[in-house]
Amino acid sequence: VGVSIVNPLTALDYAGSVFKSGHELIETLSGLRPGRQLLRVGAAATLSRNFQIAFLRPLIGRSEVELIIHAGLFGDLLKALDSHKLDVVLANHPAPPDANSNFENTLIDEQRVSLVGRKLAKPPRFRFPHHLAHTPVVLPGRGSALRSAFDALLGSSGIRPIIAAEVDDMAMLRLMARESGGVTLVPSIVVIDELRSGLLVERCRLNGLKEQFFAVTQQRRYPNPLVAELIGAR
Fold first, then answer.
1. How far apart are CA 11 and CA 49, in angstroms?
2. Full-model pTM
3. Could you report the average pLDDT of every consecutive run of 10 residues in the chain (234 residues)?
4. Which of 1, 61, 179, 195 is surrounded by the fewest CB atoms within 10 Å?
């Protein structure tokens, strides 16, 4: 009778894989009602609400789909994704490489970036970057990819802008654009309603800058089909 000897490390790895798969299945089915599909979405706190709605629109209003949307810090959302408490994380920058987590970044959209301001009776022609030397500007917070790109673009001009405010949250950036007497650096999707209504106008389009939007997922044995549906719809 032949006897096979199993390497203890191999057995431990196999047991760990089985445990992880079981945990993933439990988290995937957690809270699921009969006949319903559940999608748990994490959204970075700095992300445009308009983008979130546009991304989720194919599922909104479907009777068989239940959406759970959780806003938070990007790092916290990635931890929740890694522990199978979220199915997808939406953000305006990709997840950093992590050998232990297998995050996958899918570029969902790119939006043009403009300097916008309130509609004026006789608006002067805006010359970038020269007018920023005497026109107050509201900017995204330092550390964001958009702010870094803007600072790099402005750095070579020698212009020192008059910064009226720095705002991390896109919803607040939208409100500041409506209230400010100067201009605001913002992706067009953030203020799309104000641009359509004429409350705000595009003073200058910065063709060299774009805001990127990502869907961050993770390789899974039991992927949520709603995630693939949303990504495939873009």
1. 47
2. 0.78
3. 48 44 46 76 92 94 94 95 96 86 92 92 85 95 90 88 93 94 94 95 92 93 92 80
4. 1
